Amino acid sequence: MSNEVELKLAVEPNFINFLHQKITGFRLLGNEKQFLGNCYYDTPEHLLAKQKMGLRVRQQNGQYTLTLKTDGEVKGGLHIRPEYNVTLPNAEPDLALLVKKCGVDVENLAQFKLQPIFSTDFERQSWLIECGTHTVIEIAFDLGQIKANDKQVPISEVEFELKSGNISDLLDFVAGLELEGNVRLSGASKAKRGYALVYAQQPVEVTHWLEKWREFLQVEQSTHNPIDKLSALFQLEQALIDETFAIESSYFNVDFLRTVERIGVFFNLYHYYIDQTALLETIFNQRQSKCLSEVNANVLVELLESNNELFVQIREIIRFHSETKNNQIALEKLKQVLQTGQYVKRMINLISLTLEH
């Protein structure tokens, strides 16, 4: 078993041109282009998904690998997940071999009756680069499709995987890329998006964010650890962003109040961040004094500035929506705010403050 540590960004297909420009400044250890075919399996009852696991068979260069990804930690677009891998002689998933070779301790795993659930097929261009002493990062740009039954959605994302070094090195590297527009951190793995496509024919289940907010306030009141408070707030924010992009825009466009509520949740979020300046200052000072992590000295200033700027931007969107009653354009304006390089850097700064070492 090994821990996979990667930062995932949802990007436009032309993002690869940006990558070509940026990696020229680093020592290139290797690069390749290949097609990856992946079939995900589960039981008819989706028992693995219910345990937050993903099981796939990957075909790569004529070889087959069975991978089980278990429940891990996702902070925004930073994914830290234990995974088990075993080489297969063919495309059939062999759970008994996985248990034997890797010692997976999932109860009765070898007895699961599996069936194909969805596939993720994509072309991957990857670069292995050295970006500091003992720091090696693999950059993988994936372009393809997720398919389930007769439905499909595009894959256009880039993963920055830490091969050696510290997580702070990975965060600093991505934060320093000076990212441009139409880019955002993604907390949704390909497997999660695949299952969402499987369930796509079911009625839309939109989170009741007022209830989620109340749950967060209970966490805030019950813990005295500032990092736990900020982590809960940050996780709420990333979940809200992922859902906003996952749901079809038409769901909001046809209903004025739905759009009001969605924009209003972000308004309350940024207003709360501004009110919690002291919380951010406390965590930053703790990091600096106790050396819990290598937090850049500009992180706090950048966070405070971005929180204020976001509050102003969201307030302007509310004014526009109130005057025009145009749900579609108001939601587009909101999404534009959420997928900028500046927003990505803000989220990376939040990750750096909430990482436990």
Summarize the structure.
This protein is of the alpha+beta class. The protein has helices spanning 15-22, 47-50, 95-102, 167-175, 190-198, 209-222, 226-246, 249-253, 256-275, 277-290, 299-324, 327-338, 341-354, and strands spanning 2-10, 27-42, 54-60, 63-69, 73-75, 78-88, 115-130, 136-148, 151-164, 184-185.
Spatial shape: globular
Mean pLDDT metric: 88
Q: What is the strand tally? A: 10
Structural class: alpha+beta
The succession of helices and strands, N to C, reads EHEHEEEEHEEEHEHHHHHHHHH
What is the gyration radius calculated from CA atoms?
Answer: 21 Å
- Uncertain regions: pLDDT < 50 for 5+ in a row? none
The biggest sheet, with number of strands, parallel, antiparallel or mixed sense and barrel status, is: 8 strands, antiparallel, barrel
What share of the residues lie within helices?
Answer: 40-55%
Distance between the termini: 21 Å
Strand content: 25-35%
Number of helices: 13
